[in-house]
Amino acid sequence: MSTFNPVPTLLRTYFENPVGRLLEHPVEHYIQVEYHTGPRQVGELQAFLNHAGELLAQRGWDKLRHHEGRMSALTPEEITLISDYWSTQKHSSTDLYGAMLLPHEVFAQLSWKGRGATMQPLASFIQRAR
Fold it and tell me: Superkingdom, according to UniProt (predicted)?
């Protein structure tokens, strides 16, 4: 009997811990981030972020895709940790692009573009262009 595997064969697991797993897409050059359900420890989240940053730097990639559909809401401490990490680390020589599918109860998709502390939602770029 076979089991259903929702991960396409092109994606390879790079790192996994209780926070989630990082999948690398070697053909389209991005990281897919899949979060697990349940509680997270700050040290585990820090390790998860470190591995994501290392993968971007090693491969020279500049794209992340997050799916937060099953994860529990981030705490204020986790939000600060994530924001501080991405705004102070250098992972790519270009802007870092990301797309985030928020938890299922939010029903919205956000995208962002930026480098460090200058990250802004793409919607703000669209509004300024009008």
Answer: Bacteria
Amino acid at 108: A
Say if CB 15 and CB 58 are below 8 A apart: no
Distance CA 99, CA 66 (A): 6
| pLDDT tens sequence across 43-102 | 999 999 999 999 998 998 988 888 776 777 778 888 888 888 887 766 666 667 666 655
- Are 35 and 19 in contact by the 8 Å Cβ rule? The answer is yes
Whether 30 is in a domain gets the answer yes
The domain total for the chain is: 1
Is 122 inside any structural domain? no
| Residue 128 one-letter amino acid | R
Calculate the CA 52 to chain-centre distance: 8
